[in-house]
Design brief:
The complex is a heterodimer of chains A (about 160) and B (about 300). Chain A is of the alpha+beta class. Chain A has 4 helices and 4 strands, in the order αββββααα. In chain A, a hairpin with a 6-residue loop joins strand 1 and strand 2. Chain B is of the alpha+beta class. The chains are: A alpha+beta (about 160), B alpha+beta (about 300).
Chain lengths: ~160, ~300
């Protein structure tokens, strides 16, 4: 508990110091609870998520950083490795490949990389995975782009 | 790297078998979310953890023979041979961290019993080198510094004569306390990873023999994550990085063609060892103060007579 708090505080200071270092990620700690974080990440360019801003919710366990943070999308997203209803993310570093060398900030970077490079062979969203696996790139991109417009972009007028 | 042809270092995955059996029992496993799977895994770990602490008590070697009473005659024969040289065994939990955990306890216990301050100072210099290597490799300092600090603290505390000095009982207690034990294990994982990456040209062919991953990928997925089992690559890298020789005694069912039984061991002697005894190049000259017993998939600590 003490160890995780101390580590998170270091991450907090780092985030404050490097605020402008990565314009695609805005990581914010809950005012009253250092174990709860939120992030806004920009959809990577040349993907169906371009132009969208996606919100992530972090819940950090007491065993952090020996155990990974729990992260999920709060913004609806159509992606093979994100559960369409719960926003849960299938990413190895959030599970068995986690190590304390990762930080909340670098987890955000890994999620952005996952958005650009989906892994359709381990899908949480089977519809999305099937489109990619059957080679229907256009279908996948259309669906993903539609949900980006609907859920991750400011409403027009 | 010296490789013992008889050595079974194929990393039989004894621990994860339990998980796969459990999963296959569930027909509709697709309905389980990742959270559930992870929850189940940690439940299994909780059950396992009640059976044996991270580091067990010292047991006479006869407890090993009892375990195989009805087992393979080759194993019983080998245990008899072990009996001539070794007095006791200290078991560690089979949670994928057993090599690092065994090394941790055996090393700190050795420093405590020998009060070898020169050795403690020597390893500190090596630890400092590892810190610099990680920095050079681009690791963020705050991601590993806590683990380094905790190990150095344990090292200082086993040296007697200061206010922080601890007893042998306290060392055992700390080795069973997750907030110390896992942090020191993680420290060794960082050290191992830094050495493998620093000498990636040397380690690459051995890693290619195990997996198709790149050196960096190997470190990210098979060295740094807790619970990933150790192989000869890990042992070589840790021994080299810290300059600590390690003897691994192999207890498996292999035997010679002529039917005679002997117990193999392999000494991991640090590369670039600056101890005078190593200069003549003879392995016999090195006498490791850490001896581990390897049974396929698991490491425990052995005590010489």
């Amino acid at each position: 508990m003490q160890q995780s708090r101390a580590r998170l505080f270091k991450e907090y200071k780092e985030v404050q110091r490097e605020k402008s270092a990565d314009p695609d990620i805005q990581l914010v700690c809950d005012d009253s609870n250092i174990f709860k974080w939120n992030a806004l990440i920009k959809g990577p360019s040349e993907t169906p998520f371009e132009g969208g801003v996606f919100q992530l919710a972090f819940s950090v366990p007491e065993q952090y950083p020996l155990q990974p943070p729990q992260v999920r999308f709060l913004t609806k997203i159509f992606h093979p490795n994100v559960h369409f209803k719960t926003g849960e993310i299938c990413l190895d570093i959030l599970k068995n490949a986690w190590s304390p060398a990762w930080t909340l900030q670098s987890v955000c970077r890994a999620i952005i990389a996952l958005m650009a490079h989906p892994e359709p062979d381990s899908p949480l969203n089977c519809d999305s995975g099937n489109l990619l696996r059957s080679g229907d790139i256009r279908g996948y991109q259309s669906m993903a782009r539609m949900y980006t417009r609907l859920a991750a972009m400011p409403k027009k007028g | 790297m010296q490789s013992n042809p008889d050595a079974r270092v194929d990393n039989a995955d004894a621990e994860s078998n339990l998980t796969s059996v459990e999963v296959s029992l569930i027909d509709d496993w697709q309905n389980f979310r990742d959270d559930d799977v992870m929850q189940q895994q940690s439940d299994i770990q909780a059950v396992e953890s009640e059976k044996i602490p991270f580091v067990g008590d010292k047991e006479p070697l006869s407890s090993l023979a009892d375990e195989y009473k009805t087992g393979s005659p080759i194993l019983l024969e080998k245990i008899k041979i072990l009996n001539e040289q070794y007095a006791a065994i200290r078991r560690t939990r089979g949670d994928g961290n057993c090599f690092f955990r065994s090394f941790m306890f055996a090393y700190l216990e050795h420093i405590m019993e020998s009060q070898d301050k020169a050795e403690a100072d020597r390893i500190k210099a090596n630890v400092e080198q590892c810190r610099l290597t990680l920095q050079k490799l681009g690791y963020t300092e705050f991601t590993f510094e806590d683990f380094f600090a905790l190990f150095l603290e344990q090292l200082d505390d086993v040296i007697q004569g200061s206010d922080a000095s601890i007893s042998h009982d306290e060392l055992v207690q700390r080795s069973r306390d997750q907030s110390v034990s896992d942090y020191v294990v993680m420290f060794f994982r960082f050290v191992t990873s830094s050495e493998v990456q620093k000498r990636s040209d040397f380690f690459e062919p051995f890693i290619q023999g195990l997996t198709s991953a790149s050196v960096q990928q190997f470190c990210k997925t098979a060295v740094e994550p807790m619970g990933e089992e150790s192989d000869h690559v890990h042992i070589t890298a840790l021994s080299d990085a810290l300059g600590v020789p390690i003897r691994v005694v192999y207890l498996d069912r292999s035997s010679c063609d002529n039917g005679s039984v002997s117990v193999n061991h392999h000494d991991f002697a640090p590369a670039g060892n600056d101890q005078p005894s190593a200069q003549n190049g003879s392995l016999e000259a090195i006498s490791p103060f850490i001896t581990l017993l390897y049974r396929p998939g698991h490491y425990d600590i052995l005590y010489s007579k």
